[in-house]
Amino acid sequence: MLVRWLGELGMAREALGWLDGLKAELRDSPEVRTAHAALAAAARDWKRLQALVQDGAWGAVPADAVTLAFAAHVQREGVGVAHARATWDDALSLARTQPAQQALLRLAETWIWPEATKAALWLTARSFPTDTSAWRALLAGAETEGDSAEAWEVARAWAAERPADADAQARAQWLAVLLNKPDNGLNDAARAALGSPLAAPESRAAAALLRLRAGQAAAALVELRQREAGLAAAPRAALVYGRLLAGPARAAESERWLALAAAAKLLPEERALLEQARALNTASRPATP
């Protein structure tokens, strides 16, 4: 479509002018309205975008929620974040369906407003806990910011909401062990996972880290090595495996696994574990004459 091509060339305003010249029946088709809204956002034409979102271009959203969302954006640009956040929260309180929440999330992302984005994601996660994308986005945000406390809050809430979700339980188990959180059953669940061929890699990583801290590194290494397949795709499991391998005998192998972990966004405590392993590998190298 021409409008998409113009948008990709950075000519959003030109594309909007072209759209304005279309017949109403074409301009009002769902596909064109969606593209129209994306172009309005790219062109920062907020008045046009507000009208389009209220008209359903991004799904069904209560008109008052859209009005409040745009008012919050104006406040953020003018009177300050505190007023804006209160108005944004009012907008979120009116968004009771998933399409409405997704539309407000998209607005927050368009405005590059991290606090509003996080609030919208929390609303979706709490309102529709089976939507794993919201939980994952919250965790990814915490990891990007290096905020271990936020990551734990998200993982603990996700695990509580979804007790049968293996991924949710694995993330919570890993962070409970990594951050030395009081044992609330997550540590016991992690211990049981180490020898299980069906356990998620992060659950096994948590169990291995518990054993490492208990002075049972050799036993943990044997367990992980027996089920090495799948660890490479899980940065936290690769991290623990690399740490267990660290030392004179297997420094090169350790570094290969640590490199897989280092490519991920690691929390400060994970980064410290990585540096600890690399220090052991560096110390094992013979001095250069």
Overall description:
The structure is a single chain. The chain contains 18 helices and no strands. It has 289 residues and is mainly alpha-helical. It has a domain at 1-75 and 102-112. 38% of the residues are buried.
Write a brief structural summary.
By secondary structure, the protein is mainly α. It contains 18 helices and no strands.
How many strand segments?
A: 0
Mean pLDDT over the full residue set: 87
Strand content: under 5%
Largest sheet data = none
Shape: elongated
Q: Topology as H/E string?
A: HHHHHHHHHHHHHHHHHH
Q: Bin the helical content.
A: over 70%
Rg (C-alpha, Å): 24 Å
Structural class: mainly alpha
Number of helices: 18
Cα distance, first to last residue? 66 Å
List low-confidence stretches.
Answer: 5-11
Q: Which properties best describe this structure?
A:
72% helix; 0% strand; 18 helices; 289 residues
Summarize the SSE layout with pairings:
Blueprint: H1 2-8, H2 12-20, H3 24-27, H4 30-42, H5 46-54, H6 63-77, H7 81-94, H8 98-110, H9 114-127, H10 132-145, H11 148-161, H12 166-178, H13 186-193, H14 201-213, H15 217-226, H16 235-245, H17 251-262, H18 268-283
Helix pairs in contact: 1-2, 2-4, 4-5, 5-6, 6-7, 7-9, 8-9, 9-10, 10-11, 11-12, 12-13, 12-14, 13-14, 14-15, 14-16, 16-17, 16-18, 17-18
